């Protein structure tokens, strides 16, 4: 059997790594088609190396561009390579333009397409990701929502139950696989001269936040105000989109916020698990902090991961400084003993089981 994977951005590499590895364990051959949406080393190759993945078989080198241009170029390239590979299934993950392009190209070729992390909805149509999610979920054949709640949202949209299987989120597989390694190999605390529990962590890269000067400035001001009350420094690994906007808007970052380059996965996990509090507008970071037991303050008006809020791990504050300070005050005392909503860390296995990639699909027989 052959499984193809289309991916293009940092979170897709991290969340598909456990599925690719599970294919290897089951002797399902894999072909990875990288769209090239992310191309900076710190968002791309560093994760293949650290997560011990073979370099992608194909890189379309599409790079940055307008949504239509980027997505269209991807569809053309992916179609060609899918025709050559003729896989039994095509995996896509999440809600990026790469995910959308993979789902469209696979679906048009009548290849079985499986969407990992299906069913998430923020109900905020200003987010490009929300539009992508809706199109992807209605185009694919197999939907793997992380939770029962997300599965219900798919059913409410009329998607037939026999295409939906709740599996948990593969981010739990990844965190469980690498958390211990991260603790033992990462020297980031020493490198940045930090003590566990005595600093905050920030990520902010969403287009609707950083592409708006006032909004981005408010977020930086609010996070700094919240951290200063505790005399905490804030570590902010700056995504390239945010870096471009800081320069374009000539925004000055408050002194207590220490900007650093995007971190590799082990260093980032180490900071997430030892931070006093995490401020973020990332989807994956809301999930990881919930899994790692670190309280999270989400710098958005809503979330497609409400399970984290119901668990008591996350609160949604938007971008106004007063709201950010109030959210931090509410979340900082939390001790992280909430129930984990995103599964047991075996999502990749459940997905491959559902597709019938079991022992009978082995191309090599086990040795006597
Ligand atoms: C994309 C996804 C977003 C996801 C994020 C993960 C879409 C619509 N957005 O957003 O859902 O949360 O990835 O990080 O698919 N750039 C670089 N180097 C790179 C990549 C980008 O410098 O390797 C810069 C370029 O200036 C580019 C900008 O970042 O214009 C934005 O990149 P793009 O891939 O369009 O969107 P992201 O903001 O990364
Ligand atoms: N991440 C990382 N280094 C960083 C920031 C984030 O390795 O400096 C990882 C993080 O652990 C998570 C993923 O990147 O698994 C989240 O990606 P991002 O925030 O770019 O995208 P989103 O999840 O919002 O789509």
From TrEMBL:
Domain of life: Archaea
Coiled-coil intervals: none
Residue ranges of domain UDP-N-acetylglucosamine 2-epimerase in the record: 22-353
Keyword Membrane: no
Keywords annotated in UniProt: Plasmid
InterPro entries: UDP_GlcNAc_Epimerase_2_dom, WecB-like
Cross-referenced NCBIfam families: wecB
Stated name of the protein: UDP-N-acetylglucosamine 2-epimerase
Species assigned in the record: Haloarcula hispanica N601
């Amino acid at each position: 059997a052959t499984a193809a994977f289309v991916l293009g951005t940092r979170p897709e590499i991290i969340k598909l790594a456990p599925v690719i590895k599970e294919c290897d364990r089951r002797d399902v051959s894999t072909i990875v088609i990288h769209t090239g949406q992310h191309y900076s080393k710190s968002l791309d190759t560093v994760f293949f190396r650290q997560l011990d993945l073979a370099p992608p078989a194909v890189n379309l080198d599409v790079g940055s561009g307008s949504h239509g241009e980027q997505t269209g170029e991807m569809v053309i390239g992916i179609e060609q390579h899918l025709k050559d590979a003729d896989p039994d299934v095509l995996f896509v993950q999440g809600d990026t333009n790469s995910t959308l392009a993979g789902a469209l190209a696979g679906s048009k070729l009548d290849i079985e397409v499986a969407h990992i992390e299906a069913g998430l909805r923020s109900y905020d149509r200003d987010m490009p990701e929300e539009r992508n999610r809706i199109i992807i979920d209605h185009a694919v054949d197999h939907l793997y929502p992380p939770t029962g709640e997300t599965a219900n949202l798919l059913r409410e949209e009329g998607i037939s139950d026999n295409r939906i299987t709740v599996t948990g989120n593969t981010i739990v597989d990844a965190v469980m696989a690498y958390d211990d390694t991260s603790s033992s190999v990462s020297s980031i605390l020493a490198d940045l001269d930090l003590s566990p529990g005595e600093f905050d962590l920030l990520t902010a890269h969403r287009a609707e936040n950083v592409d708006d000067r006032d909004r981005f400035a408010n977020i930086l001001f609010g996070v700094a105000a919240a951290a200063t009350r505790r005399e905490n420094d804030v570590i902010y690994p700056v995504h390239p989109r945010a870096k471009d906007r800081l320069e374009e808007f000539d925004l000055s970052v408050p002194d207590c916020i220490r900007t650093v380059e995007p971190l590799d996965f082990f260093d980032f996990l180490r900071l997430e698990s030892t931070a006093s509090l995490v401020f973020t507008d990332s989807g994956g970071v809301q999930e990881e902090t919930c899994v790692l037991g670190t309280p999270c303050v989400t710098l958005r008006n809503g979330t497609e991961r409400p399970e984290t809020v119901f668990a008591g791990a996350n609160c949604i504050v938007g971008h106004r400084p007063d709201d950010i300070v109030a959210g931090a005050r509410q979340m900082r005392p939390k001790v992280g003993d909430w129930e984990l909503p995103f599964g047991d860390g075996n999502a990749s296995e459940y997905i491959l089981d559902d597709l019938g990639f079991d022992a009978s699909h082995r191309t090599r027989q086990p040795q006597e």
